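Bench log, entry 3. Co-assembly request; chain sequences pasted below exactly as received.
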Amino acid sequence: MANRWDTGRTEAFSDGVFAIAITLLVLDISVPASDFHDLWRGIVNQWPSYLGYVTSFLTIGGIWMAHHGLFRRMRYADQNVMRLNILLLMVVSFLPFPTRLVAEAVRDANAERPAVMLYGFTLLATSILLSALWHSVLRDRELLNPDVTDAEIAAFTRLATPNIGFYIVATVLAWRVPTATVVLYLVIGAGLVLRAPGDRQSAVA
Amino acid sequence: MANRWDTGRTEAFSDGVFAIAITLLVLDISVPASDFHDLWRGIVNQWPSYLGYVTSFLTIGGIWMAHHGLFRRMRYADQNVMRLNILLLMVVSFLPFPTRLVAEAVRDANAERPAVMLYGFTLLATSILLSALWHSVLRDRELLNPDVTDAEIAAFTRLATPNIGFYIVATVLAWRVPTATVVLYLVIGAGLVLRAPGDRQSAVA
Amino acid sequence: MANRWDTGRTEAFSDGVFAIAITLLVLDISVPASDFHDLWRGIVNQWPSYLGYVTSFLTIGGIWMAHHGLFRRMRYADQNVMRLNILLLMVVSFLPFPTRLVAEAVRDANAERPAVMLYGFTLLATSILLSALWHSVLRDRELLNPDVTDAEIAAFTRLATPNIGFYIVATVLAWRVPTATVVLYLVIGAGLVLRAPGDRQSAVA
Amino acid sequence: MANRWDTGRTEAFSDGVFAIAITLLVLDISVPASDFHDLWRGIVNQWPSYLGYVTSFLTIGGIWMAHHGLFRRMRYADQNVMRLNILLLMVVSFLPFPTRLVAEAVRDANAERPAVMLYGFTLLATSILLSALWHSVLRDRELLNPDVTDAEIAAFTRLATPNIGFYIVATVLAWRVPTATVVLYLVIGAGLVLRAPGDRQSAVA
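Structure output for the full assembly:
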């Protein structure tokens, strides 16, 4: 006897958490009043905030697209999937904190390395949890919709797995070149958005 | 003549409130600028914030899972259910305040006891309201879907009821050992996530 | 030729705005660090914040219940309804600002009157907009579901209309007894929750 | 072979982001404690915050109405639409930052021009992305519901296109008369709300 959950309301709740985490990122961008005498320069000076904003936004957006793709192909969730999903949401919701830390620390020689590495560990954790969620679904084919093809399964495995490697490599690099690594995280996040498989394939080119 | 509400939009609204309350928790985590000269240490120093974050996240996540399970089994809501639901949402939305207070107070010998006890009272209130919501549904079987079994009803009663006892015991303990009690709240919250019954049972092991 | 909107996604968007506005209220509650040496007292000292929180929470919750009831009975929205709905959401979203102002000002003899009156004007505006939305629906019966009875229409008119009077009276009173008036607003908000008509009537008592 | 996405969950996620971005705007309105001795005056003094709040609220509300209208007419989304939608949400979520900047800078002769122009560039970007999203749908008619008429297509093109011109003109004006330009942005945003085509036409006048 195994517990089964319908996925509809879990998707709605997860969408809410993703949407809020992605939108809260803007609260951490501000220009200090002392920069108002030359505001163009003050706006440009906030580039680390914009870099963090775009990186975290694209990463959460990409995770949302992958999450959407997974749940669309599921008929039920079981207890492992529900638990891993709560953990995934917990880590995604945490992301605004290291994002803010990176934006504050990126021009501080002492602080940038720990900030970027904490950010990288958080991204790595989202990637591991997303992959674990997917493998947890694959362990019990009854959880999938009957019409999901092997090609679709392979596409999601290709999407979820390599990011773990990318984030490990990037976070090692962060030890040496923290600021450049943030740009690398941006590229990985953008890749997640660009590579997300659709809900179905159309025969029309 | 009794008023009846469809549950669909109440679920959507409740999901929104749960998702936002759970996501706002991260706004209260930050490292003071004075800790940036040794940021690894500064990050570690924020452990009370992480403890509060994880505890409140798991607790709200567990309440959401129980709420989802209850409403899935309901055909209609009546006025009592609607009112108790608004009260439950009011207390869940309030949780970020005592969470923040615990994180700020946990290393302050004068302040930790009141902070942890206020946190415990809030958790106790969520637990009492969830249980009251469930018993309010049970009082009028017409509110339940016709296919809900007695075993499912018993499972929800087992899920909702003992937490009230746990929270009372824990909050008494908080008078003596406040910090250790927060860990206990974490365990109770995690238990709620782990024990939540699924939407249906599958015969496949 | 008249424009028609399906109500599904408007309800979803409105639910999101209500859920967020209601949840943001907690961000304005905090105990200053100077009160941590006697935190029980510090917690009690924040009573104006709790009063504001509960009042605004119940009021928004009651507006949500009324909004839900209206939209459930509508088949389509027209342009007036869509515009009035955007205005209603704009005023509801604004409510956290006067709520915070009341909480800060309630013990300041100079400031409490303007704060409570601004709060009252905002509540009055939500009430007028909700009533206008309802009357805008009534002007074109084609917007209503065909099975809506005259008794249901009368019930909503009774729900929406008298609050305008209550808020006008209360806001005049605020000129004399601002703090007591906040309690009156709390009673009006709770009344909105308690009086909301259900989605249907059941013959079972 | 082309990827296809169902639009339901994308609409839900986008609605969440729009609802949150629109609701976060209120967090930036506050009266400094130094203005509490004459709070009526303190409340009036915040007029730039209210102007920014109403302008951004109506603009996001108008974008939401247009977005809703577009997605209602779509059968599927393809990869371009998904990517442009993520970018559109990223820019809409960013809007609270320049809104706050305008409110802070509008009475500062040095700062108002950069603040208003940054605000204008952000509005221009939303307008370009919304138009690009629409043209991306038009490039592949298979993405549209089969019952969408040419008149509806023309109505959306008329809605989306001229705003780009309006925002370019307004942002050039901002160089000369920044405060007056904010009022112009308000008019453009209100126009978006007023001009949004409905989901269908009704023969009843």
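Residues 8-195 of chain A form one domain. Chain A touches chain B through 43 residues (CB under 8 Å).
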